[in-house]
Amino acid sequence: MGSGVQEQRASLQGEVLPNIHPKTKDLQQTRSILNSIFSGALAGAVAKTAVAPLDRTKIIFQVSSDRFSGKEAYRLIYRTYLKNGFFSLWRGNSATMVRVIPYAAIQFCAHEQYTRILGGYYGFQGKVLPPIPRFLAGAVAGFTAVMLTYPLDMVRARMAVTPKEMYSNILHVFVRISRDEGLKTLYRGFAPTMLGVIPYAGLSFFTYDTLKKLHSEHTGRPDPYSYERMAFGACAGLISQSASYPLDVVRRRMQTAGVTGHTYGTILGTMKEIVVEEGLIRGLYKGLSMNWVKGPLAVGISFTTFDHTQIVLKKLHEMGYTGR
Q1: pTM to 2 decimals?
Q2: How much of the chain exceeds pLDDT 70, in percent?
Q3: Residue 153 region, left (φ>0) first, then alpha (ψ -120 to 50), else beta?
Q4: 22 or 229, which is more confident?
Q5: pLDDT confidence bin for 318, thresholds 50/70/90
Q6: How far apart are CA 298 and CA 67, in angstroms?
Q7: What is the pLDDT of residue 248?
Q8: 216: burial class by Cβ within 10 Å (0-12, 13-18, 19+)?
Q9: CB count, 10 Å around CB of 200?
């Protein structure tokens, strides 16, 4: 992730690593991990908050049998605003933050660590990885993040599609689901999520790093401008979310089955029921056009925020050493 940042870091390490004490090297590695965790957490929070109303609207359509259209999505947003007020458009965003902050922190940090490990294995340390390891680093990072934070995603989905009277807060969701439906319900939809995150995270990081690599080779500038990072992230989001979207619909249906009256059991069974009732495109790709607005915007903001936060932290660290 952030090949420009990695190249800067690698260049610095390439000059000093041979002569530094092992403890200093460990300290640098620890600081790098902490910086990645903080940058990833901030990136996820900023991106998800920016698109929360669109994300909530998409989930509502995904879990219902109502036909999706841009006009209907606008009407839903407007009705929600008139009935419950402006901030109701962000209902469930607190649950999103509880989930997305650790998720994004783990994903970005894991990606940098997997990139470093694979780079050392393939002899590409400090450089952009070859295509297959580049995809693999993103896929495994996404897999790791989902595995560690999945129940929080379930809670976020439930809060997005239910009235405030049903679930008053995040803890209430956990208590009611555990009491009424059993603890295993917190992992309903886990399988399609894990299957979906592999192409999603893999293609997302792969596309972003590939575009940055091509940009650097074409312009000679290792660091793209902010608007270029946004454009690269938008392309990454468009490609990755389009590839994994049907599995996203399936997981949302399975996650919210307890409050929508359906009894979805398996991935294939859920897909079959959706296709039979609503059709292939209108069912499994419901809300995709909204995702083409929301997804690229969110991913673009996320990657750009991560890269710039890393750059700022690196400069602050260098200023600290200079100040001494």
Answers
A1: 0.76
A2: 90
A3: alpha
A4: 229
A5: confident
A6: 24
A7: 87
A8: middle
A9: 27
Q: What's the pLDDT tens digit per position in 111-153?
A: 999 999 999 888 777 678 899 999 999 999 999 999 998 888 8
Mean pLDDT of 161-181: 82
**Cα–Cα distance for residue pair 36/177, rounded to 1 Å:** 33
Structure tokens at 175: 């208590």
